[in-house]
């Protein structure tokens, strides 16, 4: 009798295992690279993973940290990753310089760029004009560094007057605190909170945001190669839907997003990242008047054209055509993209 029961249980377990295996086999594997180490805004995808939004859209997503927007672009272009989250301004420059292996942004995550110059009060730098003749530290692939020429032009700064110091990403804020550089470039949402976690009082941090100083441009987006998009349109549509679901869930319950990230990375600092997320929300990056009126991921063609032209002028490169930079073809109807009130 016991043997018979055991056989039944074994058969049931085999059936369940086979069913789960079958479901897993039906999911399309997707390699996804972030732009940086796990942060508050990345909880969009932490929740999409936890809530099985990717699975609901037929995807088995592997999410890895990034090492800068420029690095993520190169890796996606090379095929090391299927989809990347990266700064669209860095993308425009890359596409202009690499027309044979350009990428397409298919979902606009950030409505404004958080690209910034960050310094400390003790430096005496209070405005963009004060940067002339100063040392600015940043990784070579940092999007704010790549975009600095546009910032310089908007603020009548001679780019040649800046002494750039190339430093490893993990040493950027440390070198600023130690006084080895006068300022650093980076996403304000990254560097401000790295400085706070290093013990610098927030009142002692000065942020010269690009969006607040003449460059109200689009920020980071989801990108892929045109070849991948053409071959996997359902993957792109599913990834967008899951990202929207994750964003809405995060806006409704930021704490749940932080906990989801903690489950992915035990060393994730929930308190710090919750503050970072609030910073982005307050800056109108993730939830903006435009997104509230038109739906998450909305792109104003005129503003994107300005974003492209600004980059083209700054880098003295031929502006890539708009359809070689972004598409809104894979967005669901606006009614399905509205952020919570």
Automatic annotation (TrEMBL):
Domain of life: Bacteria
Molecular-function annotations in GO: metal ion binding; transferase activity
Example of a GO biological process term: thiamine biosynthetic process
SUPFAM superfamilies documented for this protein: Periplasmic binding protein-like II
InterPro entries: NMT1/THI5, SsuA/THI5
Pfam families recorded: NMT1
Pathway this chain belongs to: Cofactor biosynthesis; thiamine diphosphate biosynthesis
Reactions accelerated catalytically: N(6)-(pyridoxal phosphate)-L-lysyl-[4-amino-5-hydroxymethyl-2-methylpyrimidine phosphate synthase] + L-histidyl-[4-amino-5-hydroxymethyl-2-methylpyrimidine phosphate synthase] + 2 Fe(3+) + 4 H2O = L-lysyl-[4-amino-5-hydroxymethyl-2-methylpyrimidine phosphate synthase] + (2S)-2-amino-5-hydroxy-4-oxopentanoyl-[4-amino-5-hydroxymethyl-2-methylpyrimidine phosphate synthase] + 4-amino-2-methyl-5-(phosphooxymethyl)pyrimidine + 3-oxopropanoate + 2 Fe(2+) + 2 H(+)
Membrane-spanning residues: none
The entry's keywords: Iron, Metal-binding, Plasmid, Pyridoxal phosphate, Signal, Thiamine biosynthesis, Transferase
Span of domain SsuA/THI5-like: 41-256
Segment forming the signal sequence: 1-19
Family, per entry: Belongs to the NMT1/THI5 family.
Role description: Responsible for the formation of the pyrimidine heterocycle in the thiamine biosynthesis pathway. Catalyzes the formation of hydroxymethylpyrimidine phosphate (HMP-P) from histidine and pyridoxal phosphate (PLP). The protein uses PLP and the active site histidine to form HMP-P, generating an inactive enzyme. The enzyme can only undergo a single turnover, which suggests it is a suicide enzyme.
PANTHER family in the record: 4-AMINO-5-HYDROXYMETHYL-2-METHYLPYRIMIDINE PHOSPHATE SYNTHASE THI11-RELATED
Assembly and binders: Homodimer.
Protein name: Thiamine pyrimidine synthase
Species this protein is from: Neorhizobium galegae bv. orientalis str. HAMBI 540
Lineage of origin: Bacteria, Pseudomonadati, Pseudomonadota, Alphaproteobacteria, Hyphomicrobiales
